[in-house]
Structure formats: structure tokens, C-alpha cells
């Protein structure tokens, strides 16, 4: 059941990432000066909230299954449902990677950019590992059926772009109206310039 | 089985909307002059492709179920799975509404804006109807269990904003680098100014 233990570790980690990501993005929503910026980040956070809701069921289920002696203890129907749920979260990891990349275009400060890019890199590695695990698990179906492991992203050059690099030289972030948008905790009390707090006070 | 027939009509309609939406957005991706804009719209289209993939299974299944004499012909497990699938697509409708709203900030031409806003309005009505149908269906569980019908969007003022109005006066769309981004079919041949085709030729 090594694969199930690995899946459990991956989806448990991404739950932690969602929380860190929300802590970074929420101040942008709170400080947004226009409806478009607010809707944009609100939308991304809502999608991550929906993903979190699903993971709160999947992660304990994976923990439970990892305690079994073998996958043979699952019925074909249970295994099929598990693969279907994991496949949905494979897309979830892919979409989260893009949420992180999109957010790189927002932040100018190195600390936030390093945090986002670190989560992006690990999330991409997790996505690839989930794909491998699924290919391995789906081979064990007694009826020979396989879930569709097609990437929606094949043939799209955009996934080969180094968005850390591209965003470093980008003239405007989406929320270019927010001049300084580092999370509150990284803003030193005596630091000059706009902080999220000062923007909120407007 | 009136509810199942209604669900079938809703999700069949949204498949058509996804195709119309893709036809409107793809030219923006093709004409995008920077990686951020390209990633942004590519991401939205990818999410809609994923939704379409799920709907291609759900819609025929709903058609099949609507032919049955009563829901009692479904096992508790099948009904539970159906409600879970429909609940995921309830979120899908909600997210699609926001994709449409976000896109309103991109387009200046009345024809595209009217198309987007029409789909937005109907999608929101569909979303509300799915919610009602689910509440009705979940009451029929013999074990008394209910899916969580909580909105992630409750308490968020952003959903009360008239984005058609807000976007009309917005200074910049996300892809403000694209000066004229109407779909190719709406650009009259002799029309002055940039067209998607002329942008692509750069
Ligand atoms: Fe997204
Ligand atoms: Fe989205």
C-alpha cells in the first residue's frame, strides 16, 4: 500500500499549502481597490476552498485505506471510485500550480515570491507523481478498465514557460493598483511605504 | 423524474455555453502579447475543458436515468453518487459564472458583452435551480443522509456586485495590452483598427 501512503502524504501536504496560499492572497482581496481585482482573487480562493472541502474527505479516506493489508480488500467499485476521486485531485494540483504561477505576477517582494515558487515547484512534482501512481494503480483493475490519464495540458507551450522569470520583468500585476501587497506578517512595523493595513484604512 | 430531466437540460445547455465561451476566449490567448495574459485565459479555458470532460459523462448518464420510471430504481449508492456528481457540477456552474464575469472586464464591444452577460444570467439561474433540485432529491435518501449544500459564496459581497456595470467603466481589462480583442467573426472585414488576425501576424 505504498502508493496509497504516498497519495496520503501528497494530499495532506497540499492542504497545508492551501492554507499558506490563502494567508498570502486574502490581504490582496481585503486591500483591492476595484471590483475586478477583488473578483479575480476571490474566485481563485473560492476554487481552493472547494478543493479543500473535497480533500477533507479524501485525506482521511486515504489514511484509512493505507491501513489495509492490500488493495484487494477494496471492491472494484471502491477502487474505481478512489481512482476517480484521485484523478479529480490530480487536476486540482494542476490548477493549483497555475494559481500559484498567476500569483507570481502579483508580488514584487522576494520573500513572498520564494514562498509561492517553492509551493509551485513541489506541487508540480506532486502532480507528476500522482499521475505515475494512478497509472500503476489502474493496471490492477480486474476488469481491465483504465481511467483516462490524458493531460489537458499537452501541447500547450504555456506550461514550459518559466513564470518566475517572466513575472520578475512583468510591467504590471493583475492588481497593479496595489502598490505594495506583501502579506501583513512580512511588513516590518517601522517599514516605510504602503502596507496592506494602510491600504485598508483608505 | 422531472428533476432529472431538468438537470439534464441544465447541464446540456452549459455544454453549449462552454463551446461558445471557448470560441470567444481562444482568440485572446492566440493574440496575447505577454505570458501573464496567456496563462490567465489558458487557465480559465483549461478549467472549462475539465468541466466539459466531466459533463460528457454526466449528461448521458442523466439522460439514461431520466428514462427510468422512478428514482427508487436507483440504489442508495447510485443516488448518493449521482448527488455527489451533481454537487460538483453545481460548483462548476458557480465557477463558470465567475469566469464569465471576469471576462466581461476584457471586452469593450457590445455584442460580446451581451453574449457573455446573457450566459452569465442563465448560468446563475441554473445554479440556483440545481441547488433547489438537490435539496429536493437529498430528502429522498432512505438513510436520512444529506449532501452538504453550503454555499462557499455566502457572506461574500462580491457576488452582489453588478459586474456588467462595473466592467463598463473599468479602466483596464486584464489583457489591457490587447487593444481590440473582439472575436474574429465580429470584426467586419473593412473595419479600421487592430483585429485579432492582425495582432497574430506580429
Ligand atoms: Fe482557477
Ligand atoms: Fe477559475
From TrEMBL, chains A, B:
It comes from the Bacteria. This is Uncharacterized protein. One of its GO terms (molecular function) is ferroxidase activity. InterPro entries: IMEF_cargo. It holds the Pfam family IMEF_Flp. GO terms for cellular component: encapsulin nanocompartment. Residues 183-202 are annotated as: Disordered. NCBIfam families: geobac_encap. Residues 183-193 have a biased composition (Low complexity).
Amino acid at each position: 500500500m505504498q502508493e496509497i501512503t504516498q497519495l496520503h502524504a501528497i494530499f495532506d501536504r497540499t492542504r497545508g499549502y492551501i492554507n499558506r496560499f490563502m494567508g498570502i492572497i486574502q490581504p490582496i482581496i481585503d486591500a483591492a481597490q476595484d471590483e475586478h481585482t477583488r473578483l479575480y482573487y476571490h474566485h481563485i480562493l473560492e476554487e481552493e476552498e472547494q478543493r479543500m472541502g473535497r480533500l477533507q474527505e479524501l485525506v482521511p479516506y486515504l489514511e484509512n485505506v493505507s491501513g489495509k493489508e492490500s488493495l484487494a480488500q477494496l471492491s472494484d467499485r471502491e477502487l474505481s471510485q478512489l481512482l476517480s476521486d484521485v484523478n479529480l485531485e490530480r487536476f486540482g494540483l494542476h490548477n493549483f500550480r497555475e494559481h500559484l504561477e498567476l500569483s507570481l505576477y502579483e508580488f514584487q517582494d522576494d520573500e513572498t515570491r520564494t514562498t509561492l515558487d517553492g509551493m509551485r515547484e513541489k506541487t508540480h512534482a506532486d502532480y507528476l507523481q500522482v499521475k505515475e501512481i494512478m497509472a500503476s494503480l489502474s493496471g490492477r483493475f480486474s476488469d481491465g478498465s483504465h481511467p483516462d490519464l490524458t493531460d489537458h495540458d499537452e501541447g500547450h507551450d504555456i506550461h514550459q514557460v518559466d513564470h518566475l522569470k517572466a513575472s520578475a520583468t512583468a510591467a504590471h500585476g493583475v492588481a497593479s493598483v496595489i502598490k505594495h501587497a506583501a502579506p501583513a506578517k512580512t511588513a516590518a512595523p517601522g517599514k516605510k511605504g504602503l502596507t496592506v493595513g494602510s491600504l485598508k484604512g483608505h
